[in-house]
Amino acid sequence: MSRRSVPRRVLGAVLSWGLVVLLVRVVVALPEHCPVVDRDDLIASAFDAVGWLERNQNPDGTWLYRYDAAADEVIDDYNTVRHAGVTMSLYQAHTAGIEGALEVGDRGLEYAVANLVRHDDWVAFEPRSTRVTTGAAALLVAGLVERRLATGDDRHDELMAALSRFLLVHVEPSGAVAESWDRRSERPRFGLYSPFFTGEVYWALASMHLVFPGQGWDEPAARIGHYLATERDAAEGYFPDLPDHWAAYGMWVTAMWPDHDTPTRPMSDAQVAYVERQAGLGSIQTRWESQRVDDVPRHLLRGRRTLGAGLGTVGEQLTGLWQVAVADERLGHLVEPLAERAVCVAGMVVDRQVTEAEAQEHYPDPGRARGAWFQFDITQMDDQQHALSAVLLTLPILDRSEELP
Amino acid sequence: VTGSAWLVAVALVAAVNPPRLAPALPALGADSTSIRRRAGARPGSGAVAVSMAGSGLAAMVFVALAWSSNWLLDAIDVSAATMRVAAGLVLVGAVVRDVVRRPPDPDPALAGWGAAIVPVAVPFVVRPEIGVLAISVGAVEGTWVVLAASAALVGLMGLAASTPAGKLPTHITRWASWLSTTLVAVVGVALTVEGIYAV
Fold first, then answer.
1. What is the largest CA-CA distance in chain B?
2. Helix B5-16, helix B128-140: angle, nearest 10
3. Is A26's Cβ below 8 Å from some Cβ in B?
4. What is the pLDDT confidence band of residue A323, given thresholds at 50, 70 and 90?
5. B196–A276: do the CB atoms touch at under 8 Å?
6. Nearby residues of B22 by Cβ (< 8 Å), 6 or more positions away
7. Is A294 helix (H, G, I), strand (E, B) or coil?
8. Which ipTM was obtained for this model?
9. Helix (H, G, I), strand (E, B) or coil at A176
10. pLDDT tens for residues A364-402?
């Protein structure tokens, strides 16, 4: 045996360890940054986001849609579904006690009411296009349900029902949801689906059953929920499964339905399995995003940080799923990890929001920057919408953790 | 990460791949009269003692890594799920390495009981892919799984060393080795997917 080459053999082993440790650390197991936040941080962040939506609301109730800070330029565009989404988020903010949110949301609602499409016994929300989306009506319904639950004000009950009847027209027997109504042919565009609207309609109808039990909104909602859990990804060609924060909202509300209890649980086993899969999708997105910093070489490995809207939707998804896990004992094992991921997202959201000082120092128009989330110097109103919702919906998680011994 | 204790325990043993090491083990410790005296007069008993001692040392390293895994992951801000992905990918990489490289030689080795350290512990058993796996298993399934797998490993290494060189048909060790490699490849992919979709 050759003793002289033993050190080389050991050196080879040490080098292989070094190489593997280096590759693991640099390529796979990057540090995950989850800024620590408390309740006050979240409230302050939500307050700033609502402030942005208040300052940047037009007299007709619409909002500044997209702003390029580098050029100090407002980009002329608009999106009806996102208008309804922002309105909904503002009502969530009112529920959470953010002062002024209700008034800003109500001005957005006035714009929607002024731009309704009427047909047969239903109404929908679309100011211009011949493509009347189910998404806009669904988010308007979800927002109005939020408003009603928070204020007790029943003046929009008929509007909610009429919008929901529009949604029903688009629900197929399978539970699939046509993405829009064609104004020219006056028919739903069956066979055309949106990655987002199906979950939005599910949430809207499930919410209607929560507020108006006994009116029959639960059957179509349950049908859509079953479709989402069992068929949607395969039928509509999503692989891997589509991370769907709207479906998470819908399942959350479904888990709260008052007239269902064991053994007729509102959540089927298939939906429970779906929630588990969705929780995994939200979690990997959180871990990936928490590894992103914009310095070289990190962004070469993980890409640039996502949009405020992108990060916000992950937060909405995780918080919605957390609520389902809290409500349904079959998902109890997900409560703690989902809470951890959701709080991580909220920390990132707060950390990436433009503060007042940053707005004054770095942006040409501080009023359009403060409280917003930018990517490549551009912010869009749905960045504020989703980030605001994510922050607000994390509050119950922090509250619950404080209640626990 | 939910984990599967028995599967990762088997994978940990399979990743060491005692059948692949078997041809290199019987020659170890044969030059030492003290080992032969302590281990008994039976042919190959010295190699068995050296192999079990070396894998026992390696087992201590794996158990220490598993035991400190949570502290270690906290210190480097890495979640158990991400570490699981890393473990899976490193296992797959190790499989590729094992496929393209021939099995290790017994030489060079330290003399006598020193052969338990080089080459049995290093580089035969204390390999980086197994270290990374031990950290992941320790963080998810628990240190006891690594402890149990390590105990089985020590026994299997002794068994592998107990076969006199040339007595066991080559195709049997080769098939056993391929079986282990295939299992590790499958588990590596499974761990990667599990880590990706972990909550």
1. 56
2. 170
3. no
4. very high
5. no
6. B160, B161, B163, B168, B173
7. coil
8. 0.91
9. coil
10. 999 999 999 999 999 999 999 999 999 999 999 999 987
